[in-house]
Specification:
It is found in: Cell envelope. The chain has about 475 residues and is an alpha/beta fold. The chain contains 20 helices and 9 strands. The protein folds into 4 domains: about 100 residues, no CATH class; about 90 residues; about 70 residues, no CATH class; about 140 residues, Glutaredoxin, CATH 3.40.30.10. The chain has a 5-stranded mixed beta sheet with strand order 5-8-7-6-9, with no helix packed on it. Strand 1 and strand 2 form a beta hairpin.
Length: about 475
């Protein structure tokens, strides 16, 4: 089937086999199989959509007004569905149940999306609780479909904002330090660390004060005032006591190993607070694990393996998480040192530093890719590097990769995972100050960013992007004449 020419919104049930006949000329379609009545009913009777266009300016609509708008539109769509069902007496109960809960999912998702149209981009807790109530009432078994999964993700994100986030200007961020007291209590009970209840209380108060300090910093745009606020906090007696406690060898190691898992703990606690079934918990926690593994590009440590073993009851989902773990584990013994480069640490001028890095490649075109292990579009682009290498092979191009703010192990693993090695490939993971100096010199403000240098090491005044391969090849071909 040519998916570029058609799109069909349907639902498929596990264990069933479906065949779809689609007439591209007329646009008619039909499902075939032993149990495909629901799918054909969805083709014949599309579920009425909820009008999701919002009136008013963004961030200006009061939350109560937004809720009234959304409720009215949901009831309108629900009425249209009821009329549609009444017109056709042959519509199955299965269709009626699925369509009803599909509308509920859409309504609940629209409530959460409506948060972006109200003050501070966040709904009051009572509205989030209403979404949670709807989410719990959606009947089984037609729940594990795209819109339900999207609703679950949005609900978890919103719950995480309300329970764990810190207001940072006009947005919200997560301070891992907020979770330190829980980790200290857990590992004290397990006997892994030596710490008193009084010391845990000190760290708990320090984390609360750090949260308040962060909010204050984002309330001003004056850099000197921000520095003054931070210094006052850092020099306080409480901060000094707390940092001494968490800096102790056994505690510091534990926090370092546990910090990557905090998003998984958040997901676990939110799933518990939402009253999820074990099946739902397995899905939510597994997704959190997979997102963490993809983001960090590192195998699980002993804490992560233990958490996956005890928190994911589904063997299928647990194995999926462990398979990703093994993928990154398998990269550890691969030697890529020949492609990893360093620069003199005493160089701070961005232009001079870049010229020093480019010097060995005089006589060749150099394509610079500035990326980061934290950047999803960057990693998507790296996954297609083989296509770039093959297309540009005739032009003797050097590929220069410079990583922004990237942990060393994640950086190396992504290089290995995407096979970014070779005589014409060089990787730099410079100290933050040097990387920033080069980025400022090249006026880099987004990631990934690409720059092209001619055979004399001069920056070519043309916009290039490795993701637009046809255009890139055309430019390089012209320069190679």
């Amino acid at each position: 089937m040519d998916w570029k020419h058609t799109y069909i919104n349907t639902v498929l049930e596990p264990g069933e086999t479906y065949y779809l006949l689609y007439d591209f000329k007329s646009g008619h379609s039909i499902f075939m199989g032993k149990n495909c009545r629901l799918q054909n009913e969805l083709l014949a009777h599309p579920i009425p959509m909820i009008n999701a266009d919002y009136a008013g300016n963004e961030n200006k609509v009061p939350a109560q007004e937004m809720m009234q708008i959304l409720e009215s539109r949901y009831k309108e769509a629900e009425g249209n569905l009821r009329k549609q069902i009444e017109k056709s007496a042959s519509i199955s109960k299965c269709y009626q149940e699925y369509a009803a809960q599909y509308l509920l999912c859409t309504y609940a998702s629209d409530i959460l999306q409506g948060a972006y149209r109200v003050k501070d981009h966040i709904f009051p807790q009572e509205y989030v609780s209403q979404v949670e109530k709807i989410w719990k009432e959606i009947p089984q078994p037609y729940t594990q479909f795209r819109d339900y999964n999207m609703l679950t993700k949005n609900l978890i994100d919103q719950e995480a904002r309300l329970k764990y986030s810190t207001l940072m200007g006009k947005t919200y961020g997560f301070l891992f330090t907020n979770y330190y007291p829980e980790l200290l209590k857990k590992h004290k009970a397990q006997g892994d660390i030596a710490i008193t209840d009084s010391e845990i209380a000190t760290v708990e108060q320090w984390a609360k004060n750090l949260d308040s300090m962060t909010i204050k910093q984002y309330q001003t745009t004056d850099a000197k005032e921000q520095e003054k606020i931070e210094n006052a906090f850092s020099n306080s007696a409480l901060a000094k006591r707390a940092t001494a406690i968490i800096g102790r060898e056994d505690i510091a190691k534990m926090l370092k190993d546990e910090t990557p898992l905090i998003d998984v703990y958040y997901a676990q606690h939110i799933a518990d607070s939402m009253g999820c079934s074990q099946q739902q918990k397995d899905v939510i926690i597994s997704k959190a694990f997979l997102q963490m593994l993809e983001r960090l590009a590192m195998p699980l440590n002993s804490y992560g393996l233990d958490l996956a073993e005890h928190c994911i009851s589904s063997e299928v989902l647990r194995e999926k998480v462990l398979a990703e773990h093994r993928k990154y584990l398998s990269l550890q013994n691969r030697d890529i040192t020949a492609s990893l480069k360093t620069a003199p640490q005493d160089m701070s001028d961005g232009e001079k530093l870049l010229r020093h890095i480019l010097e060995p490649y005089k006589g060749k075109l150099v394509l610079l890719d500035v990326w980061g292990t934290w950047c999803a579009p960057c990693k998507m682009a790296l996954a297609h590097s083989k296509e770039v290498f093959e297309r540009l092979a005739p032009y003797d191009v050097v590929y220069l990769y410079m990583a922004n703010n990237s942990p060393e192990e994640s950086w190396k693993n992504l290089i290995k995972l995407n096979n970014l090695v070779g005589d014409n490939i060089a990787h730099y993971n410079l100290p933050a100050a040097q990387q920033s100096a080069i980025e400022n010199y090249l006026n880099i403000r987004s990631f990934p960013s690409y720059r092209l240098f001619d055979k004399e090491g001069n920056l070519v005044d043309v916009k290039v992007d490795a993701r637009q391969l046809d255009n890139l090849e055309k430019i390089i071909k012209e320069l190679n004449r």
